[in-house]
Design brief:
171 residues; mainly alpha; three-stranded antiparallel β-sheet; 6 helices
Length: 171
């Protein structure tokens, strides 16, 4: 069994990578986020049928419905939480350093792919509710969107944690 002392370098590496990642993408420019916004927008377009065009410094825009997929929709924070949860919660289950490196990379890929799936799903559902949300509630569009995000992200984190627990088991 791995001890805390054996895993501290891996935990620190995960934290350094996470802080470096967050620091790099803290800027206001949506132009740095094509690597995540483009696939999210592609999935939203695929499942909603809506067309989006990229506007520099603004994001992907659907003018007909006044929808903007911008840095707030990128999923960077969700991806960071999944990366940290996976590494801090399950790195101790991996035995060798070589496998720990592969695990760290695998968790990064899982965080990216789950962020694409969850964010595009959240946006598609928000678009579907766009027409009826004011009839059902007194929430503003922004508050409804935030509430929907909390629901999607919370359920997704439970699901991802459950998947990791099932795959790696807790000792």
């Amino acid at each position: 069994m791995n001890t805390l002392k054996q895993n501290i370098p891996w935990y620190l590496l995960a934290l350094v990578l996470l802080f470096g990642f967050k620091w790099y993408f803290m800027g206001d420019s949506v132009n740095l986020l094509h690597w995540i916004l483009l696939p999210v927008t592609f999935l939203v377009k695929l499942f909603s049928g809506l067309h989006f065009a990229f506007e520099p410094n603004n994001g992907y825009v659907n003018e007909l419905y006044n929808i903007v997929i911008d840095k707030n929709c990128s999923g960077i924070n969700f991806m960071a939480v999944v990366f940290l949860m996976g590494n801090l919660g399950f790195m101790h289950c991996v035995k060798t350093n070589g496998r720990k490196l592969l695990f760290l990379i695998g968790i990064a890929v899982l965080a990216y792919l789950s962020s694409l799936l969850i964010n595009s799903s959240r946006i598609v559902v928000a678009i579907q509710f766009l027409a009826i949300e004011r009839k059902l509630t007194d929430l503003t569009n922004i508050n409804f969107h935030k509430l929907l995000g909390i629901l999607f992200y919370g359920l997704a984190l439970f699901g991802i944690y459950g998947l990791l627990e099932w795959l790696f088991g807790r000792e």
